[in-house]
Amino acid sequence: MRKILAVAWKELRQASRDPITLGMLIGVPAIMLLLYGYALSFDVRHVALAVQDLDQSRASRELVSSFINSTFFDRTLDLAPGAQAEDILERREAKAVLVIPAGLARDLAAGRTASIQFLADGTDSQTANTILGYAAALTASANVELAGRSLSRGSPPIDYRPRVWYNPELRSTHFLVPGLIGFILMLTAVLSTALSIVRERERGTMEQLRVTPLGAGQLVIGKTIPYLGISLLASVVILVAADLLFGVRVKGSYFDLFIVTLVYLIGALGFGLLVSSLVDSQALAFQVGTTLSMLPAIFLSGFIFPLRSMPLPLQGITHLVPARYFLVMSRGIILKGAPLTDYLDTFAFLCLYSFAVFAFSWLRLTRKEG
């Protein structure tokens, strides 16, 4: 044990003297959370809206106000009668056009259905679908208000009271931040261990360590412990930044989150060891580690794309991605306040993966360095 602690202390001192490595492990996660948290968002706000109000009545003005006051739309242009809405979208002067025909107020007063037209730029399908969803919701709200005014007595047939749990404001940041934590920790943990072992080989210091009384296993464990501690410290930095910058607070148990993060990091560090056993240069270790850790954590974990929307063969592959399991548990603990006991099967899969990868990497590396 003394030999392992000596190697760990040596590695910790070496990392503290290397500002690039230290910055990558502690500073980069916070910076990445800041950039991705603000830049990566599914919310669509302040959509440029052009309005063509051909009715010019109180009812039409109230309808337009309901769109503008929602903060989803900004009224950037008023179209005169006869103006072509298609030209406005083509020149990108607006992302959507609301057309209110003449006679809107007359039809509403007579109890007839009044039609309005809403045009959206569909070049970006995801944004267009979001905009159409906003417009449909605002129109439905206006319909409810108009129907309530027209009822002299009695109650509407349906008492509609929507409520959203866990994220009532439907802010995509709350959905993305737990995924960012898993992505950032996977990337930094894999690169730190992979580069650490390969750097020793490139500098020739690995040969010097081999002639010491250290066993290969003691060497590997000693070099891994400091990066486990630094990664846990980076986790704390990320959680504090998420709270201060985005208001994402841990609603569940910090101890449960610590256990999940610890097991997840063991698997990530083990994967970094595996990468270091396959390559012999820092440049190649960086490329391989980045590719094999970053892409699955983004695309195959449910971080951005729903897993159930993927083809069945691809869904099967996602079971090999540890970020998938971490993401399910971290979102449950952070956003819902759920206990770890609600995710025992998911936690078991993560434990199996992490310890299997670490054990395989440790055996392979000790055989190579022994």
List segments where confidence is low: pLDDT < 50 over at least 5 consecutive residues: 152-161
Count every beta strand, where a strand is a DSSP E run of 2 or more residues. 4
The count of domains is 2
Measured as a percent range, the helix fraction is: 55-70%
Strand order of the largest sheet: 2-1-3-4
SSE run: HHEHEHEHEHHHHHHHHH
Short recap of the structure:
The chain is 66% helix and 6% strand.
Description:
The structure is a single chain. β1, α3 (58-68) and β2 form a beta-alpha-beta unit. It contains 14 helices and four strands. The longest helix has 32 residues, at 172-203. The protein is mainly alpha-helical. It is elongated, with a radius of gyration of 28 Å. The chain folds into two domains: 2-41 and 171-369, no CATH class; 47-150, abc type-2 transporter like fold, CATH 3.40.1710.10.
List the helices and strands and how they pair.
Blueprint: H1 2-16, H2 19-39, E1 47-53, H3 58-68, E2 73-78, H4 85-90, E3 96-100, H5 104-109, E4 117-120, H6 125-150, H7 172-203, H8 205-210, H9 216-246, H10 254-278, H11 282-299, H12 312-318, H13 322-336, H14 344-369
Parallel strand pairs: 1-2, 1-3
Antiparallel strand pairs: 3-4
